[in-house]
Amino acid sequence: MSNKPSKLKILTNGILNENPVLRLVLGTCPTLAVTSMASNGIGMGLAATFVLLCSNIVISALRKVIPDQVRIPCYITVIAGFVSVVQMLVKAFVPALDSALGVYLPLIVVNCIILGRAEMFASKNGVIDSALDGIGMGIGFTITLTIMGTIREILGSGTWMSGLDGLFPFLPEGFAIQVLPESIDPFTIMTSAPGGFFVFGVMMAAATWLTTRPKKEKASAPAEAAEGGNA
Q1: Which pLDDT does position 129 carry in this prediction?
Q2: Which ranges constitute the DSSP H helices of the chain?
Q3: Percent of the chain scored above 90 by pLDDT?
Q4: Mean pLDDT for the stretch of residues 169-193
């Protein structure tokens, strides 16, 4: 019987069990840099998801013709092509997001998440599975950035989704949801580097607890059953 994971397992694996940021600890530089606002996290996550999906598909389709000795330069070339497409689209249609993400948008080329999935998954699996893996990892990355940005923005600025009008032009200019009363001074340190590291650490601990708890409960079940039988 094959041990190959199901399509659903491949798709959902990147959301928590193998979350690229919280479990595999990849892409931490853009994670910490762009999550001072939730809207930035959404924008970066969507851009990375597009590149993940497209690069996984192309690399999987070409995996049998790419020489093993030059596979990494080939992967980077493919990824760079899709990043260039994303960068041009963002500059043309959502320039506010381009300004907010700055240098971290073109640096998706060397993002360890994308290169890592190309090397570890797309180069060893079929096109459909690789596409699902790219989507799942992208969703996990986007969710992580959005949650981290939400926590930091609410505590550090008192607002939520500030700047979302730059990502979705149909929203009114200056769109933001006031979460904390203006009479409360926000913890501005949360929007700086120390606050980012603190939230990152807390989220990593929570993700580790959520993923290891079921395994511990499953492992302890036979022992508890044996003790009950002996009694």
Answers
A1: 96
A2: 7-13, 28-34, 38-61, 71-93, 95-101, 112-117, 127-157, 164-167, 193-230
A3: 72
A4: 88
Q: Are 45 and 170 in contact (CB under 8 A)?
A: no
Cα 28 to Cα 32: distance, rounded to the nearest angstrom: 6
| Residue found by looking up tokens 């689209």 in the block | 89
Q: Tell me the backbone φ, ψ of residue 64, rounded to 5 degrees.
A: -85, -10
Q: Where are the domains of the chain?
A: 8-219
Cα-flanking dihedrals φ and ψ of residue 178, to 5°? -80, 115
**228 to 206, 214, 219: CA distances (angstroms):** 32, 21, 15
Residue 190's contacts (CB-CB under 8 Å, 6 or more residues apart) are 151, 152, 155, 156, 196, 198, 199
C-alpha–C-alpha distance, residues 137 and 97, integer Å: 22
Q: What is the pLDDT of residue 213?
A: 82
pTM: 0.89
Mean pLDDT confidence for 127-135: 96
